Automatic annotation (TrEMBL):
Protein name as it appears in the record: Carboxypeptidase E
PANTHER family assigned: CARBOXYPEPTIDASE N CATALYTIC CHAIN, PROTEASE M14 CARBOXYPEPTIDASE
Protein's gene: CPN1
Gene3D superfamilies per record: Carboxypeptidase-like, regulatory domain, Zn peptidases
Species for this entry: Myripristis murdjan
Subcellular location: Cytoplasmic vesicle, Secretory vesicle membrane; Secreted
Length: 449
């Protein structure tokens, strides 16, 4: 082709600059609930063929928890196309994530229309879900106080003043018990009556996780500048004044995910921020401080989703004038992190008649955390480059094992065809374990997370 036409040159420049959507600083403002809704619907009307807006439920005060989806086929899960989510404003007074996700939505729409190849590829190959505010009621409480007077806790919880990041079922206690007894290592059972024990916002998000096979996620907070990865809850009853690192079986990949955001961010990786030092701008959650019933650990223990918690600003509710700098500091990191959903292995699990098998278990030798195939029989397993032995198994079928080498680029496709097991082998082993393990009461910790 060779010739640089004006539109192509324009598209390239847009890609390099990352257009600031109708780029003036006056466009950056704090969005109250009605303004947030207007902004999301404006994006949807500007990019109708690649977006969809849906509500996952309502807050205590009846505000919708709106999600904006980006996809070349909105509303449809395409086999082998991973699902990704960003969640903002879980703590109502931590507002930078909310504003960044509104801006990021506008950015994706504008860049797609401008022909930015990187953004077009992302939207064609990924189903992206953006929830700018998980806690719209708390936000309104904080916003009434405004940036100048906002206290550390005003508007943090929902309208019943419940901290949503201490409100998910505690699966860590069960996981740590299973580690000692060789029990399940994934998709742990929820306690009985769990729906009565959580807030409406938490319930909506858990049902959302049940309805979509999310693979990668980040949850945006404020009050520090660091990429925090699981586990958030310490394995040991805490010794006063001492924190202990709580690694997941996927510790190496979680460190890589956290580093991806930190190094793509303009200043997070430098380590010194808000009077704290975090080497490379990343931290294990429990090693910072132990936290029970958080959303990040719940993702890993209940679903196929790997989630990290991004602390994005020292000031939880900064003035609107600081938002352009925050956008420029985070823009590349938001895109780079999203691209990580395309690493590792993915494929289909079929039976011998080429019917897809849902809920097949995919296990990787040496990593005691399995993932499962989705309703269409497709699975995704985030992995670092290396050679792995991978087994697919499903009740009533003979397990199948393959060796695969993962490179640093796109996910390697690995398909499994499972034969029906001979009749006498149908007694598939089930892990049993007590559902409810009482966890020791931890003093309420009110750090940024």
């Amino acid at each position: 082709e060779g010739r640089w036409t004006l539109p192509r040159l324009g598209a390239l420049l847009l890609g390099l600059m990352g257009t600031l959507v109708s780029g003036t600083e006056s466009d950056f403002q704090h969005h109250r609930y009605e303004e947030l809704v207007r902004a999301l619907f404006a994006v949807q009307s500007e990019c109708p063929y690649i977006t969809r807006i849906y509500s996952i439920g309502r807050s205590v005060e009846g505000r919708h928890l709106y999600v904006l989806e980006f996809s070349d086929n909105p509303g449809i899960h395409e086999a082998l196309e991973p699902e990704f989510k960003y969640v903002g404003n879980m703590h109502g007074n931590e507002v930078v994530g909310r504003e960044l996700l509104i801006k990021f939505s506008q950015f994706l729409c504008e860049e797609y229309r401008a022909g930015n190849e990187r953004i077009m590829r992302l939207i064609h190959d990924t189903r992206i879900h953006i929830l700018p505010s998980m806690n719209p009621d708390g936000y309104e409480v904080a916003a009434r106080q405004g940036p100048e007077f906002n206290g550390y806790l005003v508007g943090r919880g929902n309208s019943r003043e419940i901290d949503l990041n201490r409100n998910f079922p505690d699966l860590n206690a069960l996981m740590y018990y299973y580690e000692k007894t060789n029990g399940r290592n994934h998709h742990l059972p929820l306690p009985d009556n769990w729906e009565q024990q959580v807030e409406p916002e938490t319930l909506a998000v858990i049902k959302w996780m049940q309805n979509y096979n999310f693979i990668l996620s980040a949850n945006l907070h404020g009050g520090a500048v660091v990429a925090n990865y699981p586990f958030d809850k310490s394995r040991d009853p805490r010794i006063r004044g001492r924190t202990t690192y709580a690694a997941t079986p996927d510790d190496k990949i979680f460190k890589k995910l956290a580093r991806t955001y930190s190094y793509a961010h303009s200043w997070m990786h430098k380590g010194w921020n808000c009077g704290d030092f975090f080497d490379e701008g990343i931290t294990n959650g429990a090693s910072w401080y132990s936290l029970s019933k958080g959303m990040q650990d719940f993702n890993y223990l209940y679903t196929n989703c790997f989630e990290i918690t991004l602390e994005l600003s020292c000031d939880k509710f900064p003035p609107a004038s600081s938002l352009p700098r925050e956008w420029l500091g985070n823009r590349e990191a938001l895109v780079s992190y999203l691209e990580q959903v395309h690493h590792g292995i993915k494929g289909m699990v079929y039976d011998e008649n080429n019917n897809p098998i849902a809920n097949a278990e995919i296990s990787v030798a040496g990593i005691s955390h399995d993932v499962t195939s989705g309703v269409d029989g497709d699975y995704f397993r985030l992995l670092l480059p290396g050679t792995y032995t991978v087994t697919a198994s499903a009740p009533g079928h003979v397990p199948s094992t393959s060796t695969v080498t993962v490179g640093p680029a796109e996910a390697i496709q690995l398909y499994f065809y499972l034969k029906t097991a001979p009749k006498q082998n149908l007694n598939v082993k089930h892990h049993h374990g007590k559902k409810n393990i009482s966890s020791t009461k931890v003093p309420l910790n009110l750090g940024p997370r």
